[in-house]
Fold these 2 entries.
Entry 1:
Amino acid sequence: MESAIEFPDFFTVKFNNHAKIDEKEPFVLYSITVHTNFSCYHIYKRYSDFSKLNDRIMAIKSEAENSTHHDCFKNLPAFHGSSLYYWNLDEGFIQERKGQLEKYSQSLLQFYHKFSDRNHHKNVMFKKCKVKSYKKYSMNSVKEQIVSGTTHLDLDSSSDTDEGETFQNYEKNQHQEIKILDTINEFFSVSEIFNIETTMTIKIQRAFRSSKFNSGLRKLKKSVYSCLGYTCKIDQLPEELLLNIFTYLEKADLYKASQCCTYFKELSFHRCLWGRCKIVNQKKDFPIGKYLPKFLSKLDQLKVLDLSFCMSLDEKNIKALSPHVFTGNLKELYLDGCEKINDNALTALMGGDPNHLVADAGNPHLGASLKLRRIPTSYFLRKEGIELLSLNECRNIHCSGVMKLEKLKYLKTLNLLGCVSVKDDSIKHLNNKSDTIETLNLGGTGITSECIYYIVTEGAITLKNVNIVGCKKLKNSDIELLKTSGFNVTGGEDVFRFNLLPEPFSGLKKITQSVLKTRSTLSIFRVYKYLAKRLINELKYFPTEIAESCLDHDEFIKAINLEIHCHGVALEPQLQLKEVNEKFCNGSQALLTLYYRNKNEEVKFSKIDKELTKFPPKPPTWIPDKLCYFCCNCEKEFSFFSRVHHCRACGKCFCSACSMNKIILPQYGYTTEVRVCISCYCRYSSSGSQEIPRQSSGRNGNSIIFDGAVLISPSGQNLGENESHRIM
Amino acid sequence: MSTMVKLISQEGEIIEVDQETVMLSVLIKSMIDDSGTEEDIPLPNVSKSILEKVLEFCKHIKEHPLQEIEKPLKSANLRDIIPEWYDDFVDVEQETLFEVILAANYLDIKPLLELACAKVATMVKGKSVLDVRKTFNIENDLTPEEEAQILEENKWAEEAIQ
């Protein structure tokens, strides 16, 4: 392609971002947007490129020393030489250097513009020169030029020389000028990208990706690939595109792909391709222990691992699995029909440290503090861990093995179909320990009526589905009991569908009622404990109406208080209290009433209390009258004769006797004396020594007595699950 | 009447298209959202021939929606999975296909990217290692030791893992 075209006589540059390229000698690559009168594109330069450019210009300048035009080179900008910190990759330094380079480039281009203008004015050859074109920077032609080494100028000797100057003469004089223009032009044109080696492109891409300059990356990638001259091959596709292609392949094809070349080998074991994996092996003598550890170490992001019927999987080689059990990535583990798995194998499988999760939780600070406090892991950590464990037909598992499974804090489904040696004890134990289990498949196990009774009365409240197909020791009455208690029972004479816990809180009343009818007092507390837990987490969505309906159940209040308390101690005090505080303000006001009804536990809750009263400038929200049934201090019931009064300092409800004091509260904008409750009076008034009158009421008899010594041990350690059960 | 948008290909040629058609590209959409339809949209990374092909796809998909292609592929023949037109559309030379992938990635056109990637996947699916190398002209840069090691490790896996 050949066409008459001018040099771009207009350039502007803008430095965008930069990326650190991790080579043997790391360097910084700057992404620069160049606007010309033709187009706009990006170039990528490093410091040494600029340095070389300067060297070349200086060389040309020294050549021109003797020519008549040498004076015009005086305007060339000075270049900042490299300093002592040549390898400094510090962000501040890079920014500074970036500024210098930008300034340098701009002044260089000013020189360029001035120069080309002058030449233009003189009506010299720029008009006439023929460039073996890179018309609008068509990549192919530019590449041709570079390859063939042609210069940009192909002078047309037939050009007019109006001013009487012969062309040759002019060329001689202007030679250096043109050279400089040419150099600058070349530097800021897209052609420079060819200097980046092909192998480098991937590294550059990665660097730009890691520095999150996506738009820059996209442009770079594209220009790199187009500069490769459109001989695009599959192994030159960017990583993510190739991965996308690989997602369409089956595992066997991935294996084949891994044998093609190193790039494929790297990619075909990428974590995103191996979410689910089934290993089929039915040979008894297969040395799975030899391969499994290596295989698993490659695939740390596995979500579903199916090792069903791996006959050779035994207590020795199952250890390879144990690190994966608590990393939080593995969600489902199938070990169906693995004959050799026995209690020892399960112990080995659970051998990992469940607290590993804590340390691994991403935030090292949080991890450390949590570990220190030894709180029940299920509370605040990321909700990840094995959710499904299938041990169907593992006939060698006994009670002690199943008991070990309590370490799986997020287990929702446990299949023990056909595990004939599993008996009551282990199921009871699991039910007692688990907060999350939803489905228990107990078909063919040796459980008895006693176990069913336990499940119904004291079992995990989350449990919904029970499969008891072929449990020979069960009677019809047991199945009836399960059904009437609201479980999904499979394997009885019929399948009943009765959802125990419908979606979030709809039908909560119904549950409460049905539980009241069928379950013992202890199990009511379990229900409440569960609700309270959810309530704390989902407070904003907890309907006032339901909270109100729970008001009549003292057990619920106990549970809530316990929950609040556990939370209060377990999280970082500042953050936590603020959170509880916010939740109480924004969430259901009824809960405030609930909460303060049990305010007798002043000592333990004083911390939360203090935070709650620390409402910033605006006065506290008043608890609506209709939600206040009792005085927050003496617990006297409100009636027509004993009206509700609100304390201006804390917003809670009191009877007139408990709120007779008046003080000024400048912090809330009350400049005259306003009504406050007794405790606020003590807190805010200067005297502060007044004793809080306490009146016992009949209702107090039922309220739970928290034993401070148990809840908060002197060392600040929180109660574990065990203790909380004991309190109940 | 719908608005026309001017796209400028790598060669600098202007292609005028219906705005509705090109809105499939997230990149162009965001550019239009930013600066309106008045301004030309420079696409310096897409050559004219590829741009035309991409636009052909955009026009077709408007009238004949393409279902998402299931992963992993059920068949090594795309025709079994998607309408014939789409199979014909990507039944092109490898170079063009990769360019289409790059262009689809650059322009952020998900269905086209998926289609082209699936097409490449069919070229790998069910083929032997040698075939794959030959098809894509891949240089074997593994040392014999490495190769032997992969073979050893993978032999059981190829049979056992699904």
Entry 2:
Amino acid sequence: MSSLVVAHTRYLMIEQIRVPIGLLASALFPSLSMVVFVVPMAGDHAQAATMASASMMFFGATSGALIGLSIAVAMEREQPWNPYLRTLPAGPFPRFTGRMVSTLAVMLASVVPVLLVAALLTEATITPLRLLAGLGALVVCGIPFMLMGLFLGYVLTSKAVVAVSQLLFFPLAILGGLLLPPAHLPDFIAVVSPYTPTRGAAELLWAVTAGTSPDVVSVVMLAVWTVVAAVAAGWAYRRDEGRRFS
Amino acid sequence: MTVIARAAEITRRYGDALALDRVTLDIRAGEIVGLLGPNGAGKSTLINLFVGLRRPTSGTVTLFGGSPQDPAMRRRIGMTPQETGLPETLRVGEIIDFVSAHFPEPCDKDELLARFGLSDLIKRQVGGLSGGQKRRLAVALAFTGNPELVFLDEPTTGLDVESRRSLWDGIASFHEEGGTVLVTSHYIEEIEALARRVVVVGHGRVLADDTMESVRGIVGVRRVSFTADLPDPEGLPGVLGAERAGDGRISLVTTDPDRLVVELVTGGTPFTGLEIKPTTLEEAFLAITSKEAAHV
């Protein structure tokens, strides 16, 4: 069984690496934002720079999880290769796991350029232990966004998903305070901000990396979002199965 | 011979459309079964049921005595993917490795590549292969897991004569080693080259399940057309189907054009513009289908 997981993961990773544009896309925007906004504005202030770096890393990682995964799933559903895979002697588990592991790899890879900019060009500081904890938090907080990506990928066509996933992700990133710290958010955004999944994730990341105290409502809301996204993804998967393979 | 795959009284609907209508078919170990029929006849639906992609609306499908939904049963089968959907970025060797990983005793990779003329292409990305090369790779994937039973859906569509021949040889040698094959095709030549048993499907029904020779006889129908004032052309002997065009031209489909013309002449009705043409496979199928409908 585990050798099948390896085979599927390897195959999906090769696809990712041979078409590296998806990887670049999720790493490029956050590292550019780092250079253009974070370095001149918060680069000299250790805690602000650390928090901004964490936000940018999470921004890149979740765009990979939400946008990248939803497009990959929607496109795969449209390929005749997909029904062929179902005729091979394996259940959905190896494929699903392979999909998750390769998305995680993209998420972690997209973090690297931001980390380099933060280390070389800003006063952001972090201990190795906090960095490790931060990466752990990044992976855990990425789960609801992967589930949202799966939901969109199984519900929409690949054409629709390109637009919808971005329409969903960018407002979420702004509302959650990833691009502009919560203190600088306009009032009407600050009201909804704690209820977005991005804010809960950001609160946790800031707490782990920069030692702030997290907002409880946001963290609880993140847990609620995770459950909702898991149910929605499961429903979308079964609905798609029933449509195409019953 | 042991039956290794069986469809018993299966009906499959897609919404209101009836794709298969109470079809019963046994596949026995060691035979090559040719599945012949026009597009939309139900060939692909039948294969999808055998490989576990779909479930019948009613009736049962068994594979090696078990359910096609059970991966353990599917370890003993092989199938061709559609070559248009092969993952473009992977290399030929990588795809074979990936598919091999699913089976307990896969084929030797080099031997498989050589058998399908792919040895030189092992390092090539699939996106860069020609249509014919992709087709050969797709067929090779059906044999990758050392299966007992392979499903080949239109295996040589789009291949040149030489590749088609070598593919047929490959299938024949698999059969000689005891393998079982279900092959579908539009082309009667392809089925003729491979199969001894032919199953003709149309409108979701099995129209004929017989030896190649007898099906060949049914399929060898001709279209006879002429202009005449004939009240009842369907009544002529051996007529499978009749059509009358607006200008009074009558078109008849028959298995025995010689006898039909003799009848026409001795009948004394004047006619003009007599033409006898071979029918396409499609027309022949339609003739069988309408005859079938007439019996019911």
